[in-house]
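User: tokens in, sequence out, please.
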């Protein structure tokens, strides 16, 4: 059967892969409008210093240099970068986040000046000729050190470097007093550097005639970028046209509006020429936001029989030197609500302190808050199992929220929409043959071999909004989804979405949704995104929200089109609307099947508009702004089986099984692809990734020799399977899948390694589990 006829649930190849795999994509760096000049930022090598003097004399003497500009040159023109998630009830401090440092630099990599030249090469060379005199100040990079008395201070507005203090949950002491056993652990969820294939880039063009600023930028959310640029530059939004063309991955790091995008825009207006800035990899490592970076103190209380009673968490979140766009919401809202995981825990209390340090700002990174939360609860459950001498499977089963109790309100107040945690766990255990693995492990231990089995049974929150809930947390935007579904006279479809997929595949899956609703072949449906002029105001792609929220909107728009088409069909067929049936793209009259019109016929009729029913407008076209009534909560069970080499500390993943439930699947092949990518990203954190600063605040991991990410050599074979528990409130029953793998996999891996090392009494190792760390744990160092 031709691929084109398939709709939801089908494993069709991605429409976008033709251009991505054949080098036909169109990225910001590929574009060079006539007359383009090139910007390069001069960045501070010091993590904390007073700016004494900037001397551009030598740089300006180089042929081809157009100018060197500092903060003073943009006074009154470029404002500070606003925080879009000023979390409520957190006494949040938002010190100025300047586009270019004025008097003080607060992290190594902060921009102090910008060079503009006729060529990229000259701009790059000249960057090093700008002489900047710094007066170094004391540095603090560690969040625990930053809140100690006498620590260096970053901002006058934030005494003791505290950016915010947030908490959730009530008094857990009464529940803890009923406990027979309490397990305690300190965790370091290390800082990571999102390593998208394409670094960031922007090209700004200003049309003095129309007074319009056009910015091509690597963005996950062009409309949010437009809003933030408007606020920073003081230009009305309708005069800013933001286009995010193909984007080579983001993983959260392309959500924020970065100051340098505003500077490039201001330069284009000043110089009257297009200004292009393309980040190089070294710049990307210091100037693109980092992720995670928590220190967590956790206590889990339980009865002797394994019934979990309550959880207490104190987290210290390193925010870096400034609060980036979405940053405060990540270690609070996206973290705190989820620390109870998929267990029927009676009480929970989470206290989070956001802390300024002399490091690159931290913001969302795949999973954003949820990996930090699920890691805690899944490790704590294993620690409890060890303490009670119970099998971790049995302990989990005992405490799961039962499948017949959904929708289920958790102790933290959220309501999980649907779930069957037992179902995914059973399936995963069957695939690995858990009982047999445990037998094998017992034999291995007798023979002195180290084999470990690690579980992760997770649930996560995604599909952000509903708007009212998200805005109540302090987020400066409703998180609804938007779409227009428009049929041309010949019955082909264009879907305009407020999302901006950048590798996830919605050009295909959104076409599948419309194909399902309208019976039109996928090949006849194009999805347009990423341009503020052609798409409805939209909130972009992150938080695995695109399919549940934006996709929900697409389904609703398609249904509106179908309803309108049915009215026109009934009129043309001289039947009552309720007598007209719709199947496989054709309207027919009940009882007289020969009386029929295809949706294509109706598209043509709606274009001619000469025989329309009274009150019905021409053209098949509908727009929906869909605000979901709840979040969606995907879940699953991952099992990791490892062998550890006692002599070298090396870990070999023997099996990795992921059974996930993201509700109705639109394209199971894409779902699996997302799980693969997500799992490898989570394993990267567990195995090797870590951003490391020295005591002077220099990022030691500023290239791919020092900052290790997993390659195909380290990535294990990932066996995927699924169950399907639709979300009851979503128009198409879907939940997100884009982050589940990352949220689930690091704890599955660490649980497996710690399980392998149980004979040595090892209870915990902080990530990344490098061979050296594992070896030290084995040898008691
Ligand atoms: N899908 C499906 N059925 C479902 C759920 C999803 O067929 N029930 C499909 C979707 O239609 C889409 C894909 O799976 O094609 C992922 O959808 P979704 O879970 O809605 O996630 P988003 O599109 O919102 O993507 C965001 C998510 C996040 S938060 C990060 S970070 C991430 C990720 O996706 N960054 C990525 N995956 C990435 N993949 C690539 N290639 N590049 C990135 O930067």
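Assistant: Sequence out:
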């Amino acid at each position: 059967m031709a691929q084109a006829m398939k709709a939801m649930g089908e494993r069709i190849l991605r429409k976008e892969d033709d251009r991505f795999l054949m080098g036909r994509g169109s990225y910001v760096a590929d574009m060079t409008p006539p007359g383009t000049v090139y910007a390069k930022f001069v960045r501070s090598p010091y993590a904390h210093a007073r700016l004494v003097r900037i001397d551009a004399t030598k740089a300006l003497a180089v042929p081809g240099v157009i100018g060197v500009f500092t903060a003073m040159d943009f006074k009154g023109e470029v404002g500070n970068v606003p925080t879009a998630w000023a979390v409520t009830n957190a006494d949040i401090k938002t010190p100025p986040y300047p586009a270019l440092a004025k008097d003080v630099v607060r992290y190594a990599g902060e921009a102090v000046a910008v060079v503009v030249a006729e060529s990229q090469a000259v701009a790059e060379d000249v960057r090093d000729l700008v002489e900047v005199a710094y007066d170094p100040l004391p540095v603090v990079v560690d969040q625990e050190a930053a809140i100690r008395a006498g620590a260096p201070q970053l901002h006058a507005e934030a005494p003791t470097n505290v950016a915010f203090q947030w908490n959730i949950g009530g008094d857990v002491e009464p529940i803890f007093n009923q406990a027979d056993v309490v397990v305690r652990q300190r965790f370091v969820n290390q800082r990571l550097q999102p390593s998208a294939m394409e670094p960031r880039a922007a090209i700004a063009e200003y049309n003095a005639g129309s007074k319009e600023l056009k910015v091509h930028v690597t963005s996950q959310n062009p409309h949010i970028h437009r809003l933030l640029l408007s606020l920073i530059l003081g230009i009305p939004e309708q005069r800013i046209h933001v286009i995010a063309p193909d984007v080579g991955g983001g993983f959260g790091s392309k959500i924020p509006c970065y100051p340098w995008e505003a500077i490039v825009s201001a330069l284009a207006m000043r110089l009257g020429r297009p200004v292009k800035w393309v980040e190089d990899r070294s710049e990307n490592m210091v100037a693109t936001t980092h992720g995670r970076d928590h220190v967590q103190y956790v206590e889990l209380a339980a009865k002797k029989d394994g019934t979990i009673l309550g959880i207490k968490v104190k987290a210290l979140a390193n925010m870096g030197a400034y609060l980036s766009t979405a940053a405060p919401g990540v270690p609070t809202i996206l973290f705190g609500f989820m620390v109870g995981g998929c267990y029927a825990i009676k009480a929970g209390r989470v206290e989070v302190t956001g802390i300024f340090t002399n490091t690159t700002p931290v913001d969302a990174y795949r999973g954003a808050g949820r990996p930090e939360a699920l890691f805690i609860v899944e490790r704590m459950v294993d620690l409890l199992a060890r303490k009670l001498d119970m099998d971790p499977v049995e302990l989990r089963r005992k405490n799961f929220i039962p499948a017949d109790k959904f929708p289920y309100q958790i102790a933290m107040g959220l309501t999980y929409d649907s779930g069957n945690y037992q179902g995914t766990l059973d399936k995963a255990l069957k695939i690995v043959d858990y009982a047999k693995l445990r037998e094998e492990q017992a034999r291995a231990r007798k023979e002195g071999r180290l084999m470990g089995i690690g579980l992760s049974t997770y649930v996560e929150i995604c599909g952000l909004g509903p708007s009212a809930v998200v805005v109540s947390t302090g987020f400066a935007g409703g998180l609804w989804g938007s779409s227009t579904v428009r049929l041309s006279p010949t019955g082909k479809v264009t879907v305009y979405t407020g999302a901006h997929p950048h590798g996830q595949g919605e050009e295909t899956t959104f076409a599948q949704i419309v194909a399902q609703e309208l019976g039109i072949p996928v090949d006849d449906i194009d999805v347009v995104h990423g341009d503020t002029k052609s798409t409805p105001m939209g909130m972009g792609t992150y938080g695995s929200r695109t399919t549940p929220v934006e996709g929900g909107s697409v389904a609703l728009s398609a249904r509106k089109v179908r309803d309108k088409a049915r009215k026109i069909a009934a009129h043309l067929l001289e039947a009552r609307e309720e007598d007209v049936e719709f199947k496989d793209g054709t309207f027919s009259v009940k009882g007289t099947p020969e009386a029929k019109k295809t949706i294509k016929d109706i598209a043509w009729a709606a274009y001619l508009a000469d025989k329309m029913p009274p009150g019905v407008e021409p053209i098949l076209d509908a727009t929906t702004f869909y605000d979901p009534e709840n979040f969606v909560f995907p879940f699953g069970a991952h099992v990791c089986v490892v062998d550890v080499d006692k002599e070298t500390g090396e870990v070999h993943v023997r099996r990795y099984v992921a059974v996930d439930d993201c509700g109705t699947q639109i394209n199971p092949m894409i779902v699996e692809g997302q799980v693969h990518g997500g799992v490898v990203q989570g394993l990267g954190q567990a195995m090797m990734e870590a951003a490391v600063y020295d005591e002077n605040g220099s990022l030691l991991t500023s290239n791919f020799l020092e900052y290790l990410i997993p390659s195909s050599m380290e990535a294990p074979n990932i066996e995927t399977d699924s169950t399907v528990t639709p979300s009851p409130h979503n128009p198409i029953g879907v939940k997100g899948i884009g982050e589940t793998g990352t949220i689930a996999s690091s704890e599955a891996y660490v649980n497996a390694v710690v399980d392998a090392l149980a004979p040595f009494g090892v209870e915990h190792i902080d990530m990344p589990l490098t061979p050296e760390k594992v070896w030290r744990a084995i040898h008691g160092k």
